[in-house]
Amino acid sequence: MSVYEKQSSLASPNPRSSSSPASSRSASASDPAPFGGHSVGSQGERNISSVEKENGENVQPATVNGSHSSFVSGQASLAPEGDIEATRKLSRIYTGTQQDLEKVTVDYTDCPAMGGGRPFPPALPPKDIYEVTYDGPDDPLHPFNWSTKKKTWLSVWLCIDCFSIAMGSSIFSNAVEQICEIYHVIPVVAILGVALYVLGFAASPIIYAPLSELYGRRGVLVISSFGFAIFHFAVATAKDLQTIMICRFFAGFIGAAPLAVVPAAFSDIFDTTYRGKVIALFALGVFVGPILGPVMGSYIVQHTTWRWLEYVTACFASFVFVGVFLWFDETHHATILVTKASELRKKSGNWGIRAAHEDIELSISEIAEKTITRPIYMLLVEPILFFITLYNSFVYGILYLMLEAYPIVFVEGYGLKKNGELPYISIIVGMFICGAYIWFCENAYLRRVKEHGGLVPEARLYPMVGSAFIFPIGILWFCWTGNYHNKIHWACPTIAGGFTGFGLIGIFLPCLNYIIESYLMLAASAVAANTFMRSAFGACFPLFAGYMFHNMGTNWAGLLIGLFAVALIPFPFLFLKYGKRIRVKSKYAYSG
């Protein structure tokens, strides 16, 4: 007896009387296979074999007169009583549900009748024949095969989206002085507007990234962009400090989806040849945004109130939302097939057509347990993800620490009251120089991939080797020269910012590429774990930066930070040597 027969016989109101031996004998193996010529008996044997393998049981298919029975005219053959337990296991495997059928207490023979005097319908043929897939490697539906024009257009909007989110985090730093005067608070309280925003970055990607793997990238990004604009308008119109801080947090929380989803979307669209280059654009958006925000904001607050910082950000976010809504197509490969299956069902009228991704049935508790908590679990158990993210997070924290250090050096020290934010531009210049350097290094990486015959994640770390030394040099140069503003010209610490910017991108981008290629099948979750930790660092560093630089002095505070940066220099060397060994032993990582 096949698995389909067993299911139907058990679904019958009274399997002992629903068929007779004569009807069973008439359905012998020599009869033509039902359902368009597909043999259900052989499929049933395969399913039974899978049960034997899984459960260690010797389950024999039921036979009638030495041959496997099949359905004829909707009649089901008898299921021996000894097969009831096996059938429950078979049903669980066949349907793909996660319900434990062994706990069901109601007997299958208690099923209600179909109604209208109708017999139970025959079982369905195998689901595999109705599963939609891509039509070969050159299928134009697959994102890898989209036109260069379409890929470029999508990438531009994704990078603009990331830039707007990152810029919104730091532009509020220009409001600190006015917030202190209006609401009579100390600066560290006003800086919470920045810290809470970045803290929102830490919380939400853990939710957004796994959901994008379940339901696709487009819906997550559209909802995020819309919520981001709404909450910035809420901050701009807030009447009290509590509302400002709460709405700033939710602006970061809801708007942070691109930080985790965009790298995964790029891995959907681009293969190894171009992925590293477009990730470089993403990294520039994430890092240039927080640095350019204060430069733009300084000119806004000079002529208007702090509220226009939020109005400008909200208007720009609204523009980005419209662009993402209109022009960003779904890139998640499995979700595209779900859409294809839905379209085929509507046009063909065949409700059996399906995509494999549609078989995923998760409850809210399962989503929380298996998807939302997965990034945190991976962060805790995966050495590569944890230590690379730790280095990445320190660098990201320094980025936001500089938002407090630069005003201390250039405004308080050098007295640049109106244009104190212009030295930030040197950091941006250093970032773009490093971005061009890493873009150039892509050709060397691709040669290694070709020689190896596949991905070489550790080769992504080579540009990081030099940057690991340049980064502490930039920090120490800036802090020790900036401390002696009476003796050293302001241009000297400004130039140091170029080295710091080079190190920021030179460490962050190879780390991100390494994480994505090490955990390619779970890229969104791995990037979400990275975003969680680095955003937590970014939220905390500005809170103690002012106290540290004022109490320790710019030079000694810089020395402390520089020593931490020096202590992290061995990380790229260690993973260049031992990274592959660690990946081979990993449950989640690419082992090639």
UniProtKB/TrEMBL annotation:
Keyword Metal-binding part of the UniProt annotation: no
Protein name: Major facilitator superfamily (MFS) profile domain-containing protein
Main subcellular location: membrane
DNA-binding found in the keyword field: no
Membrane topology recorded in Swiss-Prot or TrEMBL: Multi-pass membrane protein
GO molecular function, one term: transmembrane transporter activity
GO CC annotations on file: plasma membrane
